[in-house]
Amino acid sequence: MMKIKNSIVMGISALAFYGCSKEEIPEPGINPFMPAEEQPICVTHHYTYHAESYTLTYYFNSENEVLRREGDVSIHDGIMKSKSDETKIFKVDKISEDGKTFDITLVDSEEELDRLYENTATQVSEYDRCTDWLSQPGTAAFYFFKDINYSWEYVDIRVVNASYFQDQWLDDADNNISSIWFSSYPSSVYPLRLDVFAGSCFSGSIYSLTASVPNLHWLSVDLGDKISSMKGWPI
Ligand SMILES: [Ca+2]
Predict the structure, then answer these.
(1) Strand 151-153 relative to strand 203-209: parallel, antiparallel, unpaired?
(2) What is the pLDDT of residue 98?
(3) What is the pTM of this model?
């Protein structure tokens, strides 16, 4: 009996370790009497850093605030502590359709980030920091939103038909963007890369995206409402 009990406990722990619990096992903290919109929202981050892989599970409230974290919290915090803002660089490899599961590679420099993309031919290095620049024509379109789930677009900073853009003057959108949608045509031929920066003039931590994000707060509390500059182009 004891053995069976132990294996059940181990099974539950393993699920918690790898991410949000499956439906048949109640999520920790779920209150059956609480309305659905007030239940904690479970978000999973799978990280790779050098040869190490680890997973964190975040529980958010509906205000996009972190209620608690589970999983490899100490590994993640240790890595973050060892880095300066300039070397906190996140290559977001995959985002689930519901925007709740992220595969993220941590890298140490912008050069290393560029190397991780197969096609590194970009104009990025040719242009100065602290300038805005837009090339035409192209197949890329980028849309930025005040709220999550692509609500309330900042139309002034919309980028369409571009082959490259960089924008370090976000005006009202500065530190306010909560979701991003982008695409190119045909997307199978021209996948896009969008690097968003926490600081102005393309400084501070970088999140490098290749897919739309319905809720940036779930990707990082240091990213939702915290973007100050960005650049994007087909890869
Ligand atoms: Ca916002």
Answers:
(1) unpaired
(2) 94
(3) 0.85
